[in-house]
Amino acid sequence: MSEKKIKKYILDASVLLHDPESIYAFPESHVIIPIFVLEEIDYFKKEITETGRSARIVTKLLDNLREKGSLTDGVPLDNKSVLSVYVAENKDLRLPAFLNPNKNSNKVLAVTRILNTAYPENTILVTNDINLRIRVASLGIQVVPYENQLPNLEKFYQGIIKEMLPENQGIKLRKQGFIKVDPERYHANQNVLLFSENRKEDATITRYIESENKLETIVDFTDGVWGIKARNIEQAVALDFLMDPAIDVVILAGKAGTGKTLLALAAALEQMLSQNIYEKVLVSRPIFPMGKDMGYLPGDIEQKMQPWMQPIFDNLEFLSSNQTSPKSKSGGYQKLLDMGLVETEPLTYIRGRSIPHRFMIVDEAQNLTPHELKTIVTRVGEGTKLVLTGDPYQIDNPYMDVNSNGLSHVIENFQKFDLAGHVNLIHGVRSKLAELASNVL
User: Fold this and answer.
1) CA-CA distances (angstroms) from residue 77 to 16, 21, 68?
2) DSSP letters of 221-241?
3) Which among 144, 169, 200 is the end of a domain?
4) CA 317: distance to chain centroid?
5) Residue 357 and residue 240 share a domain
6) Residue 164 belongs to some domain of the structure
């Protein structure tokens, strides 16, 4: 095949830092990395973060390829593609006057323009930088996000569907609490809101039990869990998952104020203190500041973690002071912390650990990369329940988006397995003002 007919995929730093293996994602093509991208990646290589790890992997992969041939001329890959590093002087990069020539993203744009001039039909920029995609597309050049193995959130798995039942099936469901169904129709632990033909005002929320091919009415916690009662169908489903010891991982997605963290903590306290199922509650969340970072914080690990864990403490305080909670068993949330029954831990130190017999909550999980979440899930030991909470549409990590974050990957990849349960919480319950802000701001 002639060079003009081979597709040219230009990768920027946002793609390589998200997935270092992306250089192998374009078979039978020419993969091009502008030299300025390597400079940007070099900036991150000393960070003790997932981004830093990705930067080091990219550097190692390219160094291994360098030993096989000239990166400038192009090195063959096993998938019948060729990878090269595009070297250009600043004076050769022609940009529209309104673009800053010193920005790496604009330099990538300039390289893309050069290649597009030579190969207008087969030059494609691959980037997860939305602003760069807009600038490149405005110049009439092909540009796409990196979508290798990313979930399609236009079909975001909600966890609950609605169906109409024939009246005879509705009677059977109300009488015996379950109905047999076609095993090909549902995912494991998928929830189905069933309406009867003649009782459309009533609905029964069920869960698909894969091992028995049936839809079964979920457990109704009428008296609440640790003083917390479900305020809507999604919360009822969440409590059903959280209180079922057969489900090892629960994913609660939803916007701010829908009760994700509160429900998880209430279920944790109930099962640790009342039912003695778990020895401790372990809570963590990734550290991403909102707005400008305050810099280093003084004190030991607990003192450094306090500002990041304050939302957790606020929920524990509410649960301890709730009039209907069994607070006499806990003595307040500070006592739980002092006794070591509730632990807070930075995710930085989780690698290499095995965590048995814990109710483990990872809050704001949408700010974790797929690799980071894989590291967490593989730390879960015998008898531990893992709960992931977060909003895939509220990303603070600048190198991820709604599709590429770890929480979205777990939702997409675990939905078919009976050890996992997922529900998307959609109704705000924090306050009328919080709900209004979530919807209109």
Assistant:
1) 16, 12, 10
2) -TT-BTTB---SHHHHHHHHH
3) 144
4) 27
5) yes
6) yes
3-class secondary structure per residue, 331-399: CCHHHHHHCCCEEECCHHHCCCCCECCEEEEECCHHHCCHHHHHHHHCCECCCCEEEEEECCCCCCCCC
CA distance readout (Å), 281 to 74, 78, 263, 331, 358: 53, 47, 14, 16, 6
Please state the length of the chain: 441
Co-location of 382 and 404 in the same domain: yes
Q: Domain residues for 41?
A: 3-144
Helices and strands (DSSP H and E) totals, the chain = 13, 17
Dihedral sign, Cα of residue 429, residue 434, residue 436, residue 441? negative
pLDDT of residue 323: 54
Query: 164 in helix, strand or coil?
Result: strand
* 405 part of a folded domain: yes
Q: From the first residue on, what is the mean pLDDT of each consecutive set of 10 residues in the chain (441 residues)? A: 81 90 91 92 83 89 91 91 86 69 83 89 90 88 75 60 83 88 87 78 86 91 90 93 95 89 94 92 72 49 64 83 60 75 76 86 88 87 94 76 82 88 84 66 57
Q: Considering only CA atoms, which of 177, 157, 173, 175 is closest in space to residue 165?
A: 173
Tell me 271's DSSP state: I
Domain-embedded: residue 223: no
The answer to whether residue 423 sits within a structural domain is yes
Strands 420-425 and 178-180: unpaired
Q: Do 119 and 99 share a structural domain?
A: yes
Check whether residue 130 and residue 279 sit in a common domain: no
| Encoded tokens for 354 | 């095995």
Position 98 scores a pLDDT of: 66
The CATH number of residue 47's host domain is 3.40.50.1010
pLDDT at 225 (0 to 100): 93
Same domain, 158 and 238: no
The count of C-alpha atoms lying within 13 angstroms of the C-alpha of 201, restricted to the half-sphere facing its C-beta, is: 0
At 276, phi and psi to the nearest 5?
55, 35
Question: For the chain, what is the domain count?
Answer: 3
Per-residue pLDDT at 293: 44
Which residue type does 83 have?
L
**Cβ neighbours of 133 (radius 10 Å):** 17
